[in-house]
Write a structure and sequence with these properties.
It is a single chain. The chain is an alpha/beta fold and 432 residues long. The chain has 13 helices and 19 strands. α1 crosses α3 and α4 runs antiparallel to α6. The radius of gyration is 23 Å and the shape is globular. Bound molecules: aspartic acid and magnesium ion. The site of magnesium ion (MG) has 4 residues, from loops. Its EC number is 2.7.2.4. GO terms for molecular function: aspartate kinase activity; ATP binding.
């Protein structure tokens, strides 16, 4: 049975990290093995900054500097991995960077989202080119596959929708049954016409699930810098506890509310085929992992806490002082969908709709502009959304004590509070 591994940016952030992949892959002798890889470290953020510079007439020098930095940082990793034998790989990296430059020239005047996908996909193209070369040199026979020819999507750029039939046909014909490791890119896909697309930020987990679903895989392993799923981000909460067994349903809730460990789209395709998902640490691979299946018996009532920073509160009121009735709500949420935005919290009153959104300027500004014609808008920034699953006792109140709370919502299983972000770095504790 096929196994799918997914390695995120942190697991391949430098030459040592890439070297560390070899034993993890070698330890898994069963084939087929599909390995889905993200861009290195923070490369996608760097590509987004490059894109902004490319689209700004006045920032030609900045653009050049960023492009050169992208090429040289990847070439430095090739040097560190292959030493004297890095030349051919460095040339391939140089060619990819030139192709990226060419894409910018072609798309910089065109629509943002299309330009985004034609250029940001180079993060994964670069990383997989390096990792494939490294694995082959390390005697792990590896085929490099172009995910843009396998994950077939529509042209809804930056958040493309998968054409499951076409994707399944393409993946099965190219990836079934091989004895070699099949290395491919997360996050990216392509239309039937061969135009590059992306699946949404942090979408590599979803890519792994797409490959697993199409190949009826026996297991997906997501390799992270944490040993599994926790009831809060262990980097922010001093007393976070690992959840070793979870159901798809509970994991979807946590991911949906912003637990960063797994992209929320990942679970659906796995649940449909009952493919277990394991989250393991690439730093301590022998540590007990977290495993997600359809079995709900191990879901606990332990509270889980999720913090989402950089939130915007948008209060929308009809200009003509009319009610916020269903047609109005329908209109506003329709514009939200059109802008490619998702509300992390929705609350309503007779005269207003309150939305809590991620502060993504390139989507938020067009949305504001569109709404501004028909509604009065009030916007506040610099907010944090706290979500507590299974909120026992006064946990929500205790966690947000002394904070300036702007919105609160709760139901039987989930409670949320939106408050002003406190600037200083701090460690949180889940009260008992
Ligand atoms: N490289 C992409 C990102 O940083 C996809 C991923 O990491 O999953 O968003
Ligand atoms: Mg990532």
């Amino acid at each position: 049975m096929t196994t799918v591994f997914k390695f995120g940016g942190a697991s391949i952030k430098d030459a040592d990290a890439i070297r560390n992949l070899t034993p993890l892959i070698e330890a898994h002798a069963d084939r087929p093995l599909v390995v889905v890889v993200s861009a290195m470290g923070k490369t996608t953020n760097a590509l987004e900054a490059l894109l902004a510079a490319a689209r700004d007439e006045g920032r030609g020098d900045d653009y050049r500097k960023r492009l050169d930095a992208l090429g040289s940082s990847h070439q430095a990793i090739a040097d560190a991995l292959l030493g004297d034998e890095a030349q051919a790989l460095k040339e391939r990296i140089g060619n990819l960077v030139e192709a990226l430059d060419d894409q910018h020239r072609r798309h910089r005047q065109g629509p943002f989202s299309r330009h985004y996908d034609q250029t940001v996909c180079y993060g994964e193209l670069l990383s997989t080119t390096i990792v494939a070369e490294w694995l082959n040199r390390a005697d792990v026979a590896t085929d490099w596959l172009d995910a843009r020819e396998l994950v077939i999507t529509d042209d809804h750029h930056q958040d493309a929708n998968v054409d499951w039939k076409a994707t399944s046909d393409a993946i099965r014909s190219q990836a079934g049954g091989s004895r070699n490791v099949l290395l491919t890119q997360g996050f990216i896909g392509g239309t039937a016409e061969g135009v590059s697309t992306t699946l949404g930020r942090e979408g590599s987990d979803f890519s792994a699930a797409i490959f697993a679903h199409c190949l009826d895989a026996g297991e997906v392993v997501i390799w992270k810098d944490v040993t599994g799923l926790f009831n809060a981000d262990p980097r922010r909460f001093g007393n976070a506890v690992q959840l070793k067994r979870l159901s798809y349903a509970e994991t979807i809730e946590l991911a949906w509310h912003g637990a960063k460990v797994i992209h929320p789209k990942t679970l659906g395709p796995l649940k449909q085929k009952e493919i277990p998902l394991t989250v393991r640490s690439f730093e301590t691979p022998d540590a007990p992992p977290s495993t997600i299946t359809s079995d709900t018996r191990f879901d606990t009532d332990l509270p889980s806490c999720i913090l989402r920073d950089d939130q915007v509160l948008l209060e929308v009121k009809p200009k003509d002082f009319s009610f916020m009735d269903e047609p109005r709500q329908h209109d506003i949420l329709g514009r939200l969908v059109e802008a490619g935005m998702h509300a992390n919290l929705i609350d309503g009153g007779a005269m207003q709709l309150t939305l809590c959104l991620d502060n993504m300027a390139e989507r938020l500004e067009p949305l504001m502009e569109s709404l501004d014609a028909d509604y009065t808008l009030q916007r506040q920034e610099g907010l944090t959304l706290l979500t507590v699953r299974h909120p026992s006792g006064s946990i929500l109140e205790r966690l947000s004590e002394g904070r300036d709370v702007l919105v609160e919502r709760r139901n039987a299983t989930t409670a949320q509070r939106l408050f002003r972000t406190v600037e200083c770095p701090e460690t949180w504790y889940i009260p008992d």
